[in-house]
Design goal:
Blueprint lengths: L3 H4 L8 H6 L8 H22 L6 H8 L3 H8 L2 H12 L1 H8 L8 H14 L1 H16 L5 H13 L1 H12 L8 H13 L3 H4 L8 H15 L4
Helix pairs in contact: 3-4, 3-6, 5-6, 6-10, 8-14, 11-12
């Protein structure tokens, strides 16, 4: 299973020992407190993916991150709340890349090609798939994990949903549910269940992004 250091891009890697050992007298400076919370989210992501939800220990994360358990519970409320925040954190890069796509109401194939390329290129998206594998494995014991992952996915793909809704309103795409159409497009990019099973770099690049966009637009085109 992928490790967090291989999946989350950052300019400075998290050094859990230095985070936990850094000492301050009195109240932490705001910047340091925020840095520790971000480090906690990154460490939590790695733990949820590598160990699973059941075996991720809040006490272990406290020791690694330097964030007190009181602070952790104040910020996130519970282990489930931490999972929600960590999952949202994992989708941050993809969310930014999708929102940055330059969209045209008159050239949907080019616009969907940008969405597809963002999905293919974003390391955060690959990590989201690793989180999804974990959720599928633990869903029967912890059903709320699936609700959390679904909520984060809907929020992450909101730019895609809104663009599809615009095209439906303009008569470019057939009428329907923009959320359903958005996840159909994402499944085309990831080749459905293959994303859960295949660790190889099969998604391709710009050429495949354009091909997926073309198939999606033509398949969903409104009747003349």
């Amino acid at each position: 299973m992928p490790k967090i250091v291989d999946l989350v891009n950052r300019s400075e890697p998290v050094d859990s020992q230095s985070v936990a050992s850094r000492q301050y007298r009195g109240r932490l400076p705001r910047e340091e407190a925020q840095r520790r919370v971000q480090a906690l989210l990154t460490l939590a992501l790695g733990s949820f993916v590598d160990k699973g939800y059941t075996d991720t220990s809040l006490d272990g994360l406290v020791a690694l991150s330097g964030v007190s358990k009181t602070t952790m519970l104040r910020h996130f409320g519970s282990k489930e709340g931490l999972f929600h925040a960590a999952t949202k954190h994992s989708a941050g890069e993809l969310r930014v890349n999708l929102a940055a796509c330059e969209l045209s109401p008159t050239d949907p194939e080019a616009s969907f090609a940008q969405f597809a390329k963002a999905l293919i290129d974003s390391s955060g998206d690959r990590f989201s798939i690793a989180v999804l594998r974990m959720v599928v494995a633990e869903k029967s014991r912890f059903p709320p994990l699936a609700h959390t992952a679904w909520a984060v996915a809907r929020e992450t793909f909101r730019p895609l949903q809104e663009y599809i809704a615009l095209l439906m309103d303009n008569g470019v795409l057939e009428p329907g549910d923009p959320v359903e159409a958005a996840f159909e497009f994402v499944a085309m990019v990831h080749q459905g269940i293959r994303s859960l099973l295949d660790e190889s770099d099969y998604r391709g690049g710009a050429e495949r992004a354009r091909a997926v966009a073309r198939r999606f637009v033509r398949g969903r085109a409104a009747s003349a």
